[in-house]
Write a structure and sequence with these properties.
homodimer, 255 residues, Rossmann fold, 6-stranded parallel beta sheet, two-stranded antiparallel sheet, 9 helices, 8 strands, 49% helix
């Protein structure tokens, strides 16, 4: 069945198709598809657009990334499949940001595929294909990182990541920026700077902000971010969607 | 990595694993995994339990199924993978309910696999493997149904179905019971009787209710169901979850 651009869900159906193909190509795993569905539900409830609060978080993220001494973006299969180009744009805007493959379901073949997807989009170098260090607090393979990447980072941007990993980084004293559509997830709760927005919108905004920054890195992150306020604002946005939708009549005026 | 039964998300991780295996077995497609993720998000927001309102809907569904002249349950890949046993239990409790394979992404091989999963659980006969009729208002393959099943049904129970199909059945004057965790979905909006609950919980309750019914079929569905009220109640439940979660502090007391 061909997908018509006039379909009301065209954009999200296209993304679904891309992820399904990424799974066939060995980039994305089944759990990644299910996780994407959870994100879709929250994006729908958030009105499928960047809220003013999320936009503020994205601006703060650009400032933090710019000011950090060793900022790293952690990339898993879903992120590579959905937003390799946006990652590349962020790194072009600020080349001192490093990019590391970090997989929950790690195999060397999959790590290589994720790296290749990033390299094809223009990211180089890509760290983490052959991990050289371990971080505490995570079981087995999930602890494996790059000694010059996440291991040594003062700031990690972790899009679409799990709560265990977010907690393990925080426990090491590293600052964490999350991108996660679920404001209630452990990842969003743990992050110093939770961005509650769709991945590609968030990365595009961060890249735009970084492209505008002209001053040299400020030598470390000094300001704080009201993480709790940002999550509360996302919950209020969802609440407004529910109230509005509850008032809507059924299709064709049926009740 | 082995899954510990003490993991806080054990139940949902187990279901994810089962669906991933069902995809490898050709029963479930990539889009089905994404749809499952959307359901997970809504179930989480609904507190992962059957609300009093959903329970009332399930009781009404049992009455309707029992009273219908030609009730049919439509089964897709996800439903067969998740709840073949529960479908079998419903049909054992009321053998005049028929079961039909109905796939969005139809191939003969996949229809056969879905039928086999149902038959292994004890459902016989399974209609719809080789469709014998078409219903109006749906494109191409999705319109194909069984002349003695969905085509002739006065009542269709459509778990985890898309809005187009729900609308096409309604347009033919057939009564529709949906099982869908999203109270805002077109399926839930279109259904005469929307059950906003998790698939296996809903089917188990319907089976329990049918097992208690002793009178002969009442000769058609006479009562009406407050579909709009049921959806509004589900939205209020989600609203309560959001309010409660917004008050919770971050993990480890961080803000």
């Amino acid at each position: 069945m061909r997908l018509s651009p006039r379909h009301p869900r065209y954009a999200s159906l296209r993304v679904r198709g891309a992820l399904a193909r990424a799974q066939s190509a060995g980039l994305v795993v089944a759990e990644g598809l299910i996780a994407h569905g959870r994100g879709e539900a929250f994006d729908y409830l958030l009105g499928e657009r960047t809220s003013a609060s999320a936009r503020r978080a994205e601006r703060a993220a650009a400032v933090w990334l710019h000011a950090a001494r060793r900022p790293v973006i952690s990339v898993n299969g879903n992120v590579a499949a959905l937003a390799a180009r946006e990652i590349a744009r962020v790194v072009r805007a600020d080349p001192h940001i490093r990019v590391e493959v970090n997989l929950f379901h790690r195999t060397l073949a999959r790590a290589r595929r994720v790296a290749r997807a990033l390299e094809s989009a223009g990211v180089a170098p890509v760290l983490g294909v052959r991990p050289t260090a371990r971080i505490a607090g995570l079981p087995s393979d999930r602890a494996r990182v790059d000694r010059d990447g996440i291991y040594a980072a003062d700031l990690c941007l972790i899009p679409l990541e799990d709560g265990d990993r977010a907690e393990a980084l925080r426990a090491r004293g590293q600052k964490v920026i999350s991108i996660d559509l679920n404001p209630l997830s452990r990842t969003s709760r743990v992050a110093d700077l939770p961005i509650v927005d769709e991945l590609r919108r968030a990365l595009t905004h961060i890249a735009e902000d970084l492209e505008r920054v002209r001053s040299p890195p400020a030598g470390g992150i000094r300001d704080r971010f009201d993480a709790r306020g940002a999550r509360a604002e996302a919950l209020r946005t969802i609440g407004r969607t529910l109230t509005r939708e509850a008032r809507r009549r059924s299709p064709r005026g049926r009740t």
